[in-house]
Amino acid sequence: MTETAVTPAREPAVRAATPGEAPAERPSRRRRIALPYLLLLPALLLELLVHLVPMLMGITMSFRELTQFYIRNWSEAPWSGLDNFSVAIDFDAPVGQALLKSFLTTCLFTVLSVGLCWLLGTAAAIFLQENFRGRGFLRTLFLVPYALPVYAAVITWAFMFQRDNGLINHVLHDQLGIGDSPAFWLIGDNSFWALLIVSVWKGWPFAFLTVMAGLQNIPRDMYEAAALDGAGVWKQIRHITLPSLRSVNQVLVLVLFLWTFNDFNTPFVLFGKAAPEAADLISLHIYQSSFQTWNFGTGSAMSVLLLLFLLVVTGLYLLLTTRGRKTSDA
After folding, report:
1. Model's pTM, two decimal places?
2. How far apart are CA 170 and CA 182, in angstroms?
């Protein structure tokens, strides 16, 4: 008769808590919950110092008659209430008319820039999905404008747009013979198109990078099945690629809109402190209204109005896109 070895039962991994003793898992669970907030704390503090505090100061300035006489101590500036806002939105007065024209110019510029950035970025990303020789080199080359510092890139474009010795006029007028004389790109009506070219050149690689990342999540089996059913390239893009990129494009268009509408560096570096009338974007217009006329109260009121406009547009955009996504899913 053989003896069977009896294996002792394993002790439970977690010891039962005695009366009056807290469970052992609770402190570790609390640490796991608190860890993300602790990691986000430095970013939240920097956001508070860099963005929220100046924004609150700007809102306070918009209710004061803040001019050059109160720069040393702006808190002593007289309280003006809504007078600065009334001046900014009085479209019968010169200040309001100039602000309205700058706003409309910025809207047109933003629509064209965002649309072209999205179109070029999406087309390039779809084209580079196919395997071919030199694809890695082209991907790297397309990201160069996004990697360059803004000031270096825009200053280079400013030299290229020079009338007498710029590369643009050398190619268009001297080499191709377009136009009777070299064009002025940094003044006059052409300044709008010069600014648009620089903005699109600088912004489309971000769209390309975002769309290219979104394309990685689309299974190749869907394209193969569509090809077996006889669908061509355009039908595949229309019925597979674009619907699959819907959520990516929603975020991409919103980010491009906010960046482009608020862009200050590009027109400031390209034109200097005073932009031509045709390229007077609202960000540079507010800067001129504040730091050239020394009327910081009116300039702050314009900034607050711009902030409210962007908040309303962003809220409506998110509401419409979210509702559209729920409708399509249903």
Report:
1. 0.81
2. 8
